[in-house]
UniProtKB/TrEMBL annotation, chain A:
Pfam families: ABC_tran. This is Cell division ATP-binding protein FtsE. Part of the ABC transporter FtsEX involved in cellular division. Important for assembly or stability of the septal ring. Gene3D superfamilies: P-loop containing nucleotide triphosphate hydrolases (3.40.50.300). It is found in: Cell inner membrane; Cell membrane. Homodimer. Forms a membrane-associated complex with FtsX. Keywords: Amino-acid transport, ATP-binding, Cell cycle, Cell division, Cell membrane, Membrane, Nucleotide-binding, Translocase, Transport. Belongs to the ABC transporter superfamily. GO terms for biological process: amino acid transport; cell division.
UniProtKB/TrEMBL annotation, chain B:
Keywords: Cell cycle, Cell division, Cell inner membrane, Cell membrane, Membrane, Transmembrane, Transmembrane helix. This is Cell division protein FtsX. The chain crosses the membrane at residues 24-47, 174-194, 222-248, 268-292. GO terms for biological process: cell division. Residues 62-154 form the FtsX extracellular domain. It comes from the Bacteria. InterPro entries: ABC3_permease_C (IPR003838), FtsX (IPR004513), FtsX_ECD (IPR040690), FtsX_proteobact-type (IPR047590). Residues 179-294 form the ABC3 transporter permease C-terminal domain.
Length: 217, 302
C-alpha cells in the first residue's frame, strides 16, 4: 500500500529530515513509527499524505507516485487518508458535530447520509452525547477522540496518526490505542508515529525505528 | 451534479450567515461599493437625460435663411432657382411666413402672444441642408447666400448643436473613464474584505486542505461573498440613483415648466439596472478571485 524507495527529504536551509529511507507497508498492517522527536517521523507521515514532496526518491501510495502527483489530484488522495494530528487541528468556531461533518461536506455526501455517518463516528469514539458542544469545552483526551472521529468518518483505507497520545495520560492513551486496534481489525491500514516506546511494545505490532532521519529496522 | 448543487447551496447560505455575523463591516463595505458605483451610473443617467433633451433639436446641421419682410413671390422664385442651381446642397425647403406663424402659435406659452398680433411679424424662410456638414463648408454656403437679393439674415444655427453633440461625446468618454477607475476601486474593496476574511478563516482553510478539499471548494465561499457583496453594493447604487432622481426631478420639472416643457428626469431602465447589478457582481467576483488566489498561495508556501 505504501512504498518508499530511497527517499530523502531536505528542507530549505539544508536540514535533512529523512535520509535514503526505503520500506514497504502492506495493506491492512498496523505499523508504529518510533524515534525521539526530530527523528523524522512527522516528515515521513507528511510525505505519505503529499503535504511535503520528497527531495529524492519516490513515495508510492496505492500504486500512485505521490511525490510527483499533480496539485489538483492531491485532494482526492487525501480523502482516502484519515489524518490525526497531535495538536488536533479542530475548528473552534463550530460544534463537535460540524467538525466531524467537514470531511463529508468536502467529499460531497448528501446531508442526510452525512449526518448519519457523523453520528456513527462520534458514537465510536464515545462523544455522541457532546455533539452540540463546542470542541473548546472538551478535555484533551476528548479533543483527540474528536480528531479521530473526523479522520475515520469518511471510512478511509489508510489512517496516519502523528503522536496521537502525545500529551495524554496513560488511561486515555490506552483507550485510543485500543480504538486504533479496532480499526485495524476491520481492515484499515494504520501508521502511528509515537515516541512512547512502552506503549508501542505493548501492542506487539511492527515498528519502524527512525534516528536522525535514518531508518533502523 | 447533486453534489455540485449542494456545495453551491452550502456556500451561499454560509456566505449570508457570515455577513449577518458582522453586520457593520458588511454594511460599510456595501455602502463603499454602492457609492463608488453610483457616481458613474449617475453621470450616465445625467447624460441620457441630456441626450433625450437634445434629441428634439435638429440632429442634422442646417442653415436657416430669412427673406426680407417685403420680399414677393418673384423674389422667392429667384432664390429657389439659385438654390436649385447649387450642387453643394443635400436639400432645402421653403417655410412660408403664414405657416411659420401657425406653427409658432401652436406652441404652448406663445399662443397668447400671437393671438394679439394684427400683422404677421415673421419673414418667409428657407431651411437648407448642406451636402457636407463641416463648419467651413457651412460658413462658405452661408456667406454666399448672404449676398443674394432680398435676404435679411442667414443663420448657421447648427453650430451649437454640433458643439452639444461633441460635449455629449466627451461626457460619454468621461463616464467610461470614471467607470473604469471606480470599477478598479470596487475590485480593490472587494479584494480587501475577502483578504481579511481569509485571514480570519485561515485555520479552516488549512484543515480543509488537509482533509481533501479542492482549491475550488475552498475558493467557492469567498467568491460567493464577493458576488453577493457586489450585488448588494449594486442595489445600494441603484437606490442612491432612484432617490437622487426623485429629489432632482421636482426642481427639473419646475425649471422645464418655466420653458413650457413637460420634461421629466428619468432614472435607469430595467435592462440598465440589470446591467448595473451584473457589473457589480462581476467586479465583486473578480476582486474576490484575485484575493483568494493570492492568499491561498501565501498559505500554501508557509
Amino acid at each position: 500500500m505504501i512504498r518508499f524507495d530511497a527517499v530523502t527529504k531536505r528542507y530549505p536551509g539544508g536540514h535533512e529530515a529523512l535520509s535514503n529511507a526505503s520500506f514497504e507497508i502492506a495493506s491492512g498492517e498496523m505499523v508504529f513509527l518510533s524515534g525521539h522527536s526530530g527523528a523524522g517521523k512527522s516528515t515521513l507521515l507528511k510525505l505519505i499524505a503529499a503535504i511535503e514532496r520528497p527531495t529524492l526518491g519516490t513515495v508510492t501510495v496505492n500504486s500512485q507516485n505521490v511525490g510527483k502527483m499533480r496539485r489538483a489530484a492531491i485532494p482526492y488522495l487525501r480523502r482516502n487518508i484519515g489524518l490525526i494530528f497531535q495538536d488536533h487541528k479542530l475548528l473552534f468556531d463550530r460544534s463537535v458535530m460540524q467538525n466531524v461533518l467537514l470531511p463529508l461536506q468536502i467529499a460531497g455526501f448528501p446531508r442526510h447520509e452525512a449526518a448519519g455517518r457523523a453520528r456513527a463516528a462520534l458514537d465510536k469514539v464515545g462523544l455522541l452525547k457532546r455533539e452540540k458542544a463546542n470542541p473548546i469545552t472538551l478535555s484533551g483526551g476528548e479533543q483527540q477522540r474528536l480528531c479521530i472521529a473526523r479522520a475515520v468518518v469518511s471510512r478511509p483505507s489508510l489512517v496516519l496518526a502523528d503522536e496521537p497520545t502525545g500529551n495524554l495520560d496513560a488511561d486515555y492513551a490506552r483507550d485510543i490505542m485500543d480504538m486504533f486496534k479496532a480499526f485495524n481489525q476491520v481492515g484499515v491500514t494504520l501508521v502511528i508515529a509515537s515516541h512512547d516506546e512502552n506503549a508501542i511494545s505493548a501492542y506487539g505490532s511492527r515498528v519502524i525505528h527512525l534516528e536522525h532521519g535514518a531508518l533502523l529496522s | 451534479m447533486m453534489t455540485w448543487l449542494a456545495h453551491h447551496r452550502q456556500a451561499l447560505i454560509a456566505t449570508l450567515a457570515r455577513m449577518g455575523k458582522a453586520p457593520y463591516a458588511t454594511l460599510f463595505a456595501i455602502i463603499a461599493i454602492g457609492v463608488a458605483l453610483s457616481l458613474p451610473a449617475g453621470l450616465f443617467v445625467l447624460l441620457q437625460n441630456i441626450t433625450r433633451l437634445a434629441a428634439d433639436l435638429p440632429a442634422q446641421p442646417e442653415i436657416s435663411v430669412f427673406m426680407q419682410q417685403n420680399a414677393n413671390d418673384a423674389d422667392i422664385t429667384v432664390i429657389r432657382q439659385r438654390l436649385q442651381a447649387r450642387t453643394d446642397l443635400a436639400g432645402f425647403h421653403f417655410v412660408p411666413r403664414a405657416q411659420a406663424l401657425a406653427a409658432l402659435s401652436k406652441q404652448a406659452g406663445v399662443s397668447d402672444l400671437t393671438a394679439g398680433l394684427t400683422d404677421n411679424p415673421l419673414p418667409d424662410a428657407w431651411i437648407i441642408v448642406p451636402a457636407q456638414a463641416d463648419a467651413q463648408n457651412m460658413a462658405r454656403i452661408a456667406a454666399a447666400i448672404r449676398g443674394w437679393p432680398q435676404i435679411a439674415e442667414v443663420r448657421d444655427d447648427s453650430q451649437w448643436a454640433q458643439r452639444l453633440t461633441a460635449l455629449l461625446g466627451l461626457g460619454r468618454d468621461l463616464v467610461w473613464v470614471l467607470a473604469s477607475l471606480l470599477g478598479a476601486a470596487l475590485v480593490a474593496v472587494s479584494g480587501n474584505t475577502i483578504r481579511l476574511q481569509i485571514l480570519t478563516r485561515r485555520e479552516e482553510i488549512e484543515v480543509s486542505r488537509l482533509i481533501g478539499a479542492t482549491d475550488r471548494y475552498i475558493r467557492r465561499p469567498f467568491l460567493y461573498f464577493g458576488v453577493v457583496q457586489g450585488l448588494f453594493g449594486g442595489l445600494i447604487a441603484w437606490l442612491i440613483l432612484v432617490v437622487s432622481v426623485l429629489l432632482l426631478d421636482q426642481q427639473a420639472s419646475k425649471l422645464a415648466a418655466l420653458y413650457a416643457s413637460s420634461f421629466h428626469l428619468t432614472g435607469l431602465g430595467l435592462i440598465e439596472v440589470a446591467i448595473l447589478l451584473a457589473i457589480a457582481a462581476a467586479l465583486g467576483w473578480l476582486g474576490a478571485y484575485l484575493a483568494v488566489n493570492r492568499s491561498l498561495r501565501l498559505i500554501e508556501s508557509r
